Known about the structure:
Layout: E1 21-25, H1 28-31, H2 44-49, H3 67-81, E2 85-89, H4 92-95, H5 105-120, E3 124-130, H6 136-140, H7 148-164, E4 170-175, H8 177-186, H9 197-221, E5 225-231, E6 235-236, H10 240-260, H11 265-270, H12 284-288, E7 294-298, E8 303-307, E9 323-325, H13 342-354, E10 360-364, H14 381-399, E11 404-410, E12 429-431, E13 438-440, H15 442-453
Helix pairs in contact: 3-5, 7-9, 8-9, 13-14, 14-15
Bound molecules: beta-D-fucopyranose (FCB).
Beta-D-fucopyranose (FCB) is lined by residues 27, 30, 175-176, 179, 231, 298, 364, 410, 417-418, 426.
Amino acid sequence: xxxxxxxxxxxxxxxxxxxxxxxxxxxxxxxxxxxxxxxxxxxxxxxxxxxxxxxxxxxxxxxxxxxxxxxxxxxxxxxxxxxxxxxxxxxxxxxxxxxxxxxxxxxxxxxxxxxxxxxxxxxxxxxxxxxxxxxxxxxxxxxxxxxxxxxxxxxxxxxxxxxxxxxxxxxxxxxxxxxxxxxxxxxxxxxxxxxxxxxxxxxxxxxxxxxxxxxxxxxxxxxxxxxxxxxxxxxxxxxxxxxxxxxxxxxxxxxxxxxxxxxxxxxxxxxxxxxxxxxxxxxxxxxxxxxxxxxxxxxxxxxxxxxxxxxxxxxxxxxxxxxxxxxxxxxxxxxxxxxxxxxxxxxxxxxxxxxxxxxxxxxxxxxxxxxxxxxxxxxxxxxxxxxxxxxxxxxxxxxxxxxxxxxxxxxxxxxxxxxxxxxxxxxxxxxxxxxxxxxxxxxxxxxxxxxxxxxx
Length: 456
Ligand code: FCB
């Protein structure tokens, strides 16, 4: 056994605090399939994935893991793995096919039954209201560039809470608004595929406004715990200007308004060449800064940056001219993401220091590797070692004072990895997309034991 500088072991046994919540995460468009069943309307991801050249190999979420039809089997799988919690998202276009107005009862029924089955299996449901699948008709009316979308989101949040609030305690408004805004509207890598930096900032604000309005709607309905999930990354580099610019656009542009009720002044200044921020109206920041009960943290890898004169801006970080990204000296996952578990410790400790008072839950962490089924098993030692190292990093953060309450592995099963299609496998359970057969990988069996003993 070796001991790290933080005092936590690199290989020996570790125990997490009593009541630490162990779970797995998925998202509606990535697993459900059944894209036209039971009155579901189209989402921006249906449109985008059907647009030639947008998603690898032309893959779509039409069938995905067929979870919509295999819900009960999948809940049994979760029970067999001993999951204490399951973080899933609701498909807004199943609930309101047009994004506003009439509610589709068959869509609501699906989540109603899912929640009941989870509870019967002893698995706590954690609901995410928006994991990127905006109803297409709302996009046709401007999407997240239109302020009205924020209001419609709050209506939808109220509808969901009215139906599930008697059985669901924990609600997450948005998943990773950074991706929705900067990938979806700022540079077009994700749906809806619009590509103007200014739109990225407008979308940030309307997403956050939608979050704040939804917090209000959920509270009005009596929701017990409300939060948001952000994709955060420590920024590593020697150049303080580059570090603070990227940290501003990746982390603080969301953390500060949600947890302090203000946009960071340096980010506002730097973005003035793209936007005059006139979309921010009186009272918006009070709405956005309404108190929350937990912050969901999605962590995969840090951002490594260096000053390099002449470097063009990264399309995903408007205004990042002269900054080179990447280059970390570390092994990589199949996504090409550097494996740097210490980043998770740094991030959690920083959040607890700079934004004290908000409990943290890791709502996503995991890795894609090129898995193969052999003789009915999937040996994925790289994933086991990724997860082991990141759990040790999370534990080290707790020892240093981070108020971390739980961990959700991404993902329960292989699924539609957005612009990468089905080529990247993040699941602890393997999915054969021809037969829809589920095979728990070694990492799933390992995780089951972690949960059983509440530690490593
Ligand atoms: C996150 C997304 C999630 C999944 C992982 C790999 O950005 O929230 O849906 O695609 O990345």
